[in-house]
From TrEMBL:
<keyword id="KW-0560">Oxidoreductase</keyword>
<keyword id="KW-0521">NADP</keyword>
<comment type="pathway">
    <text>Cofactor biosynthesis; riboflavin biosynthesis.</text>
</comment>
<protein>
    <submittedName>
        <fullName>Pyrimidine reductase family protein</fullName>
    </submittedName>
</protein>
<dbReference type="GO" id="GO:0008703">
    <property type="term" value="F:5-amino-6-(5-phosphoribosylamino)uracil reductase activity"/>
</dbReference>
<dbReference type="InterPro" id="IPR002734">
    <property type="entry name" value="RibDG_C"/>
</dbReference>
<dbReference type="InterPro" id="IPR024072">
    <property type="entry name" value="DHFR-like_dom_sf"/>
</dbReference>
<dbReference type="Pfam" id="PF01872">
    <property type="entry name" value="RibD_C"/>
</dbReference>
<dbReference type="InterPro" id="IPR050765">
    <property type="entry name" value="Riboflavin_Biosynth_HTPR"/>
</dbReference>
<feature type="region of interest" description="Disordered">
    <location>
        <begin position="90"/>
        <end position="109"/>
    </location>
</feature>
<dbReference type="GO" id="GO:0009231">
    <property type="term" value="P:riboflavin biosynthetic process"/>
</dbReference>
<feature type="domain" description="Bacterial bifunctional deaminase-reductase C-terminal">
    <location>
        <begin position="36"/>
        <end position="233"/>
    </location>
</feature>
Amino acid sequence: MSDIPALHGPLPLTDGSALSEDGLAAAYPWPDRNVWVRAMMVTTLDGAAAGYDGLSGSVSSDADQLVFNAVRRHADAVLIGAGTLRAEQYTPMRAKPEDQQQRSADGQRPAPVLAVVSGSLNLPWDLPVWRESTHRPLVLTSAHADPGQLAIAGKHATVVTLQDITPTTIVTALTERGLTRIVCEGGPRLLRDLVAATLVDEADITLSPVFAGTAHSPTTAALAQVSTFRLGHVLQGDGALMMRYLADR
Ligand SMILES: NC(=O)c1ccc[n+]([C@@H]2O[C@H](COP(=O)([O-])OP(=O)(O)OC[C@H]3O[C@@H](n4cnc5c(N)ncnc54)[C@H](OP(=O)(O)O)[C@@H]3O)[C@@H](O)[C@H]2O)c1
């Protein structure tokens, strides 16, 4: 008889829409670790990270948005690549008043800090996210960046210059500032680099029940080897599956 891999029955699926906001946040606990990096992404049935308009919102859903908010709710930093900021309309980073009390009890800043990685510093400086976030956003860039662009960036954000922009220097720059609960909201390039450097501890991935084509989905360089994660939980809502995966190490 040939070896047949063990197949398991349906996973216990929880109806995500039935969970309260607090229940959802509790499903995404921050481990008691010095540094924890989680990734949050939505993908379509055909593996696209963006829909017809090049944005993730067009392949998302209300249930995915609930989980998105729960995943970032008690984070210290929301980390994104410049491509994501250029594409997506990031709104000011604030926390609800009721969360601020909990954050303060946990020794956290009142709201997550936005951290944007950019070599070019070609960023949409007119977005309200720069001036209306609770905390001044961070821009992580190269020490060799154009001086004129550095000067412009400094008017809108706290600029952190790194000798080399690598996943390790990015995460170190955040942790040195006490930002140890990090949620990377993409995009695919930044996420790929963090995974390649084995810096992603948790991947919170939503599978949306749509096909979108991949023409507007960014591609990334192949990893030298696959990086394996183990399933933590699956939630469902709006026909989407919200999966929490943990690094297999
Ligand atoms: N499905 C989802 O959940 C999801 C999530 C986020 C984004 N998206 C979509 O993904 C697309 C953007 O993704 P992307 O992969 O193209 O962009 P990305 O990863 O957000 O950003 C890439 C940019 O980040 C900067 N960067 C990242 N690593 C760097 C490094 N090591 N050194 C220097 N600069 C570095 C560079 O900025 P500069 O060019 O400024 O130098 C680079 O061009 C958009 O269409 C967005 O809507 C989807």
